[in-house]
Amino acid sequence: MLDAISGVVAAWQSLLGWFAAAFGIEMLQYGFMQRAILVGLCIGVMAPLIGTFLVHRQLALIGDALAHTAFAGVAVGLFVNAVFDTGVSPYLSAVVVAAIAALLIEVISEKTDVYNDVSMAIVLSTGFALGTVLISINAGGLAVGVNQYLFGNLATVSVENASLLLVLFALIVAVVAVAYKQLVYVTFDETAAKVAGLNVKWYNRMTAMLTALVVVGAMQIMGVILVAAMLVVPVAGAAQLARSFRGALLASIVLAELAVIVGITMAYEFEATAGGVIVLVAVAIYVGAVLIGKFRERRSDVVSVAESGQDESTAD
Amino acid sequence: MLDAISGVVAAWQSLLGWFAAAFGIEMLQYGFMQRAILVGLCIGVMAPLIGTFLVHRQLALIGDALAHTAFAGVAVGLFVNAVFDTGVSPYLSAVVVAAIAALLIEVISEKTDVYNDVSMAIVLSTGFALGTVLISINAGGLAVGVNQYLFGNLATVSVENASLLLVLFALIVAVVAVAYKQLVYVTFDETAAKVAGLNVKWYNRMTAMLTALVVVGAMQIMGVILVAAMLVVPVAGAAQLARSFRGALLASIVLAELAVIVGITMAYEFEATAGGVIVLVAVAIYVGAVLIGKFRERRSDVVSVAESGQDESTAD
Amino acid sequence: SGVVGSGSGDEGDSGPKAVASFFSFYDFARKVADGTPIEVENLVPAGLHGHGWEPDASVTRDIIEADAFVHVGEEFQPWADRAIRTVEDDDADTALVNVREGIDLIDIHASVGDDEAVGGGKDPHFWLDPERAKQSVENITEAFVDLHPDSESRLRENADAFAGVLDDINAEYQAIFDAADRRVVQLAAHNAFQYIGVRYDVEMHPLVFNLAASDDVKPTDMTRAKELVEENDIRYIGAAVFESRRPAEQILAETPVEAYFPVTPFAGVRKEWVEQEWGYTDIARKINMPTFEVVLGNKTPEEADHEDWRNFE
Amino acid sequence: MNVVETRNLTFGYTATPVVEDVNLTVEAGEFLGIVGPNGSGKSTLLKLLLGLLEPDSGEARLFGEHATAFDDGERIGYVAQSVTTDTSEMPITVREAVLMGRYPHVGFGRITEDDRRKAREALETVGMSHLADRRVARLSGGQRQRTYIARALAAEAELLVLDEPTVGVDAESVAAFFELLADLHEFGLTVLLIEHDVGTVVERASTVLCMNREVLFHGSPDDFVESTALAEAYGATPKIMGVSE
Amino acid sequence: MNVVETRNLTFGYTATPVVEDVNLTVEAGEFLGIVGPNGSGKSTLLKLLLGLLEPDSGEARLFGEHATAFDDGERIGYVAQSVTTDTSEMPITVREAVLMGRYPHVGFGRITEDDRRKAREALETVGMSHLADRRVARLSGGQRQRTYIARALAAEAELLVLDEPTVGVDAESVAAFFELLADLHEFGLTVLLIEHDVGTVVERASTVLCMNREVLFHGSPDDFVESTALAEAYGATPKIMGVSE
Ligand SMILES: Nc1ncnc2c1ncn2[C@@H]1O[C@H](COP(=O)(O)OP(=O)(O)OP(=O)(O)O)[C@@H](O)[C@H]1O
Ligand SMILES: Nc1ncnc2c1ncn2[C@@H]1O[C@H](COP(=O)(O)OP(=O)(O)OP(=O)(O)O)[C@@H](O)[C@H]1O
Ligand SMILES: [Mg+2]
Ligand SMILES: [Mg+2]
Ligand SMILES: [Zn+2]
Fold first, then answer.
1. In this complex, do D129 and A245 lie within 8 Å of one another by their Cβ atoms?
2. What pLDDT is stored for residue C2 in this prediction?
3. CATH superfamily name and code, E4-234
4. E strand or H helix that includes residue A1
5. Which of A52, A180, C13, C82 maximizes the CB count within 10 A of its CB?
6. What is the C-alpha R_g of chain C?
7. pTM given for the model
8. B53 to chain C, minimum CA–CA distance in Å?
9. ipTM of the predicted structure?
């Protein structure tokens, strides 16, 4: 199947390549840049898509938390390989440990009535500490830095990477498309969702584990900073602008894509690291959104014209 | 003044040295272990002390967020030095940038009505991205790795480090001792605190900036993982056990000190990195606290004996 | 080539271009290419450690547009591994030059020999051993010959000459270590110097055995260093130029050690070194050798003309 | 089949039960008013009936199924006490919130024009049409409460479970709401209502349950007025200003 | 000096004002009841009076000072509408929460036995002594509301500001609470009360303010009953079930 997907990647590349030739855009003529743009655009859709549901459950920092547990995951994989002489892929152990961590975050929140951020902090600390300790007691075996398993970079996305990301992308888009209503309900009002017959726990856990998959998978391809930031920053910006939830979701994707395109172009021009520049552009867009939101709230106030009782007849 | 404080450190060391000799405890005979224990005990008091107020304002992950901005701070310092040929200490720029970031977290929360975790995520992302970009566009100028400015380690605490930490410790203890009631009120009910004449914004900002000072100062001495975890894990454990807020605060300090002592000892025995082991011990204690809390809640239920109306006469 | 309209470097009078991922091999490569049309460029900016660095798109572009990419073999520089994948994926005609090809690596703890030796990891820092470095020069030479056959004779001449210099280095090291009474060296650095230890039969004691997490000093690392210093009456130690100075300062404070002096595994270079056009051999002679003279007790820092570096910043 | 049926239902957040040994049957079409002093376990009882809490002993059945396993959400409309302000900053509009009442009917399918119409009607019923595009977070207390009532109405459920639904709703609207409730009940809906205003309950409900941990009275409103259950219930709890002392 | 004084007070969360041109004076010892439909700006008005919101134009003065600059917290006791459930999991006990009412008196000093006694008395007054060591998060809705009332009482303030304080409090206790309020008022306290039950307001308050964005009536309860203000206020707002149509 991965072959078929590489086909998609190849098609995309020839499209952009043709584009580059037709309009003489230097940046687009390189294969690696074509792939960078592809995965950038994908993360610009799927991160806000899932991030919207995370942010409103106060899980904005879950990307960061899971990234730290992925560090533990790599260490666990290397440790197991060293001690038991097995050949577990550290990439795999990173994903598995992060998924377990995501589950733990949910379970701790469920069982101890704490705020989500406390369970994230506990899981993050545990993961990070576990990784550090494993590395320190097994010093000899871990020949090379753990980091190499952890962080990718937009400047070096391989075809295989891009294909993997497309799969993740399809998965996230499909899940949100199918379960959109359920996710909104569960996010907005857990109790009511429970009464409405939804298995709230199950949805929460599924979301968390999907997040683990996206965060760890994507950070290995394009770096943790980009993934973790894209989960939150465009969503926060969109919440300042949009009036409805659906509007916010769409706006967050638009803002994210804008950041990706502007960011990649600027990074190429200024020879800076693309992930970082995209995030800074996203933050700038966020600041703009806040200002626009504030301005609009005080001025052209379309909705509340119909608000006061007197104008009732004009409403709806 | 720092001399006087080094005197305190020296006195502590001779005390532990005498102790080591008297009871033949190998671990305590080394100067660096004596200092490790000293700063460990200090962080075991001051982190939960300030962490309690953070956790209940849903700022559990602020330690992690500020640590990432300290990264940006070091990069900014090095960048400025390289470009303008100045001699700004990267330690200083790290603290300053983290303090600004802490302020920003508060201001974003105030101005945009978002949850605290969203403002933390935005600040974290911005800081991290800024650091990465600065390093990447000025690669040549940043002569030495950023990391060396960022992270200390319990095994390499110098006398100067220990003295600095004692100052931080005194500052935090003094602030909490003086403003305990105000902090509790502001944390519990912002609106009521405002009406009661407290300058809520000011207290919140002060807490955030103190946190920046502690996180960045202490992480340069003993590592970020230990500091960030100690802000949250013992507090979460204590919340499971204690009945009152004051009780929770004291319990969190007790649990933290327990983790420090057991952790340092175990790390020494098993030849592992001390920060990580302390955190793992703290997490184990947390799990214990959750179990005890759950058990107690269901069984010996002293308070609720007087709860149901019938037993009213026995109450208070 | 998958690169649309890429000017792959052959145009005009400029010759083929080679880029290197690591300072030492950039230096070797430029020595070999000296006087030929082959241009050599270092990708990692001065001051940065070879691993733990992320390239931006311009670096990937440089690699793709270059005619050869000199790298240190798999799993040492993650970004280089990924760049190689990119080169392959883009069907770029960049020749990949693995300098480690055919070199036998030692196990990580070969010289430590204590009960900690677990796992089958190999130590990647082979270029610290001049003999093994010579082999990597051969690898580069063969690749460059393929790149520009017209310059074959010049390339081989350069390579032979440089191999001679490396032989000199080897002899100089040998002399230093032969002259020493002490067979142990304490370093406040990560475990990168075992090849010197094995070659010249001296025990290298890094503070941290772990190649990866050099930030994480354990309490026992400090006790071990302290014992070693006291047992062997060590007064000077080596400290890595591109790593945190904190452990060195700590050893200074805790033990009879009087000063630390610089050692470098050639992972990065300082700006001054670039300005003075120092290469591998210059650094070996001006940084590492005097330090080993001092820490082994052959010479005082004054005699070794190394005072400037006492407890360096 | 009874809508609600419990057998020796007992539950405590701690070791002391706050709901004890409740045996209760609610038939289809019944309008059950629940009264009792603060802390008497009314909200807890509703949560048990809805399967939001797991009983310590005994059992609760909803439409014949175990309450905790019941997942036929479209049959129930629920307005919780003092609705959460947690998700406050979520940019959900009043319209979207009310439309959620339709979700159990829709499942994984698409929302139809019919669903939208029903949500619109529910909004109109509670007099919130003019605020349909306002974020829920930007409503006054009473407006928010109305929104949740509208969501429960939009669900077109067979069973309406209301925990002090008119808290904070202004007096005139409260009266209108109870009119509506009476209409719905007449129309055949089963209603469970917690309400502190005993007068309203007695007037509207077909059955009254008075509790304080245990059931003190369960029967017709007329019998309830005659009984001593109310005095009993409140007598067992300390009064404001110790009026009972 | 008047306790509260406003001049052309206007405020809107957006461009449309929700409180407009309010000129209001509350003298020391007055008991002002505020009525109006949902969303008429009552809570907003109180927040403006307390300096929690900055007016768009006009001004609000509290004890002669600008409301936003006023920081003499010990003179005010405040019970907000639907008290936040945000800090819910904070392990604050009822006793500690009530003691907070004393904090403005204590400042940076130490809490004395006298403060503790006053908190204890306030707890007794609202009938919550037996739950003093319970966490606030583990209370029923009505119990929590009582806790906040006790905190306001413990403050021994000159001005008591209550935004629907008895919401969710059971009927008997509500009656007792209003008795208490009358006593306090007699004792000389100034009271500002939002309450939907017009009957209670008319019976208890010394002055009535009826508003819907603008002030529709401000005067004695007797005059209020005669006036058309109430009909006017509610008439301008959509009713539940469109009763007004
Ligand atoms: N999470 C909890 N932990 C411990 N005790 C609780 C918890 N929630 C409620 N209680 C206690 O259980 C008892 C019943 O609470 P419940 O909310 O069912 O009362 P209620 O009848 O609905 O009261 P109200 O009229 O005030 O809403 C009360 O004494 C309350 O203090
Ligand atoms: N944060 C906000 N943003 C925008 N509009 C708001 C906000 N809070 C309240 N409003 C609107 O302002 C108006 C007045 O609200 P307010 O809370 O003062 O009403 P109220 O009279 O207290 O109503 P209730 O009886 O329901 O408590 C309402 O129309 C409400 O929708
Ligand atoms: Mg209740
Ligand atoms: Mg209100
Ligand atoms: Zn190395």
1. no
2. 36
3. P-loop containing nucleotide triphosphate hydrolases (3.40.50.300)
4. none
5. A52
6. 20
7. 0.87
8. 30
9. 0.85
